[in-house]
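hey can u check if this looks right to u? its 115 residues, i copy pasted from the old doc so theres a chance i mangled smth
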Amino acid sequence: MKTCLECGEKIIGREDKKFCTDGCRNAYNNKINKDSTNFMRNINNKLRKNYRILSELNTDGKSKTTKAKLFSKGFDFQFFTNILQTKTGNTYYFLYDQGYMVLDNDFYMLVKKDI
């Protein structure tokens, strides 16, 4: 006799069935896949917010903006996914495929990687 992995009820049906209902299956998978800590969830939320801001400001794939505009939208410069150092010495900070490079006078070049 098999029991549901979520609630422990007896399972009726196919031999390889693991859950008694779709609700139990969803509840079990939600527990397994949720961010394990508030710290991780908060970082992921900041990365998503930064990505949305860059995507909104960089609709053409390459544009310029100011530091003040990024700050006014809530951009947090501490959170990015990777750094790209070019052969010419330029440093780009990326959030997945959206990136930015610091220019003079508090301006930023926004770019999008072709994936």
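The CA atoms of residues 11 and 36 lie 29 Å apart.
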